[in-house]
Amino acid sequence: MTCPTCGAIADTTAATCQLCGTSLSASGTPGARGPSAGGPGSSAGGPGSSAGGPGQGVGGGAVPPPPPGNPGPGAWQAPQPHPSGLSNELRGWSIGAHLGGLIVGLSTAAVFGFVGPLLVWLFKRDEHPFTDHHTKEALNFQLTVLLVLVLSIVLAIPAVIVGVITFGIGLILLGVLAVVAVVAWIVLPIIGAVKASNGEGYRYPLTIRFVS
Q1: Which of 10, 115, 133, 166 has a CA that sits 20 to 30 A from residue 80's CA?
Q2: Is the pTM of this model over 0.70?
Q3: 35 vs 53: CA distance, rounded Å
Q4: How many independent structural domains does the chain possess?
């Protein structure tokens, strides 16, 4: 310990300087004291400090505000409406009418494919013209498929006879026609569902409009 009066080095346990007699218990180790915490020029809390001030980043740099139209990261944004102006619910029911007919039809060999769009049409037809349009189209298409299926079963025996008479050419043509019909039965409802998702109308080709 150094005496603040004469500069002599004293024992750390000594209460007074052995050379000049200055009390060492209250003065402690000498040395210039810096500015107190919180004062001007201090490193924290006061004006001009490098941390804690509003609008300041690391090292005291100012944080620029977010540009107009960009609320910045973490800010909540309201969901944007669909370009068609239709709600998700309306488009969802319309999509369900198309895909519901296809799924039920695939699981019942096209016999009860009309049940899905029929239920949606009965419960949702009065809510919006968009839903009414798509559910009726899906219903008419599945009813047309059912009619074609019944006619195919009725005409199966005459078709076989015609195929035998034509030495198998008729059977080949009927087979190609059947494949095309099955592909159309699967693809057309998917196209209708995509159109409904985009908020667009859709009319099935080669479809009898039982419900108008």
Answers
A1: 133
A2: no
A3: 19
A4: 1
